[in-house]
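Morning!

As promised:
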Amino acid sequence: MSASEDQSAVERVLAGDISAFEGIVRRWQAPLINLAYRFCHDRGRAEEMAQEAFLRAFRALNQWRKDAVFSTWLFALATNLYRSELRRIPARTMSLDEVAEPADTRASDGGLEDRDRNSAVRRAVLNLPSKYREVLILFYFHDMDVTAAARSLSLPEGTVKARLFRGRELLRSKLPQILAVPRLKEA
Amino acid sequence: MKRSTGRLATGKLSITRLADSEEVDRMLSSEDEILPSSGFAVAVMDAVRREAAAPPPIPFPWKRALPGMIVAGLVLVLALAAFIAVIVYLPMTSTIPQVSTPPSSLGQLGLHGGIESATKWTVLALLLAFVSVKLSMSLASGRP
């Protein structure tokens, strides 16, 4: 994925060649859908949100100032959309009590199954207050890159770090049982 | 995308908390990737083409609406001024005559003056409303 490919595609679209937008869609469809999926954990809804993000990008293409890489602009636009969509219709989640003590958390040998634990942690993330949830989602989506997460959220890095710290503290307090049990693979 | 630049320097984390952090990192980093469905790009491009083919939205007719808005603003200011004048005028008519005029004629005078000024203001307000409605209707119909 090269930035120059994006730039030339954008220039062609702005010059009237709409089919050039397909290159952008094909290049960024998987990341945008996966980002949306992390916000809602619903495949159908993730695709709908990603489609809307592409449409908004198409409408606002002339607003990309080229001072940032196209992907940064696209992710910021998509993140804004996903955040407002999730505020409008929240993701289907369970309460934190249910997350903290899942009905079937222990395997026969007394340990928690990796998959169950991971899934419980992700559900717990979705149950966090939105400002911590969004930072956590973006941070892990961007492979733990605070700068990229801050750009996508249009927030200062310091704010992202503070929210990240607090978000993880909240997670730890909500999931003591899950985090305390050693993983099967390590046993 | 680069990795691990965002590890938080929390300073005095205990070993357990550090281990917890790494555990949370490990769990949340290993999120399953989903693949776009086969028709996704085509569906997006269809929507984009529809969007491009749609006529541009009709802009707000500022040129036509502006005179009406100015008149409406003036009417509002006049009405406000009239309201304030009435508020200031009424206590004066009710307090000043109390000292010098007999109560029987005072009521008649106040009532008379009140009705008279109210009628004037009502007529003025109706006139302004009529003019602004006529003006906005003629602007809207394109016959200035």
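Residues 96-180 of chain A form a domain with the Arc Repressor Mutant, subunit A fold (CATH 1.10.10.10).

Hope this helps with the figure draft.
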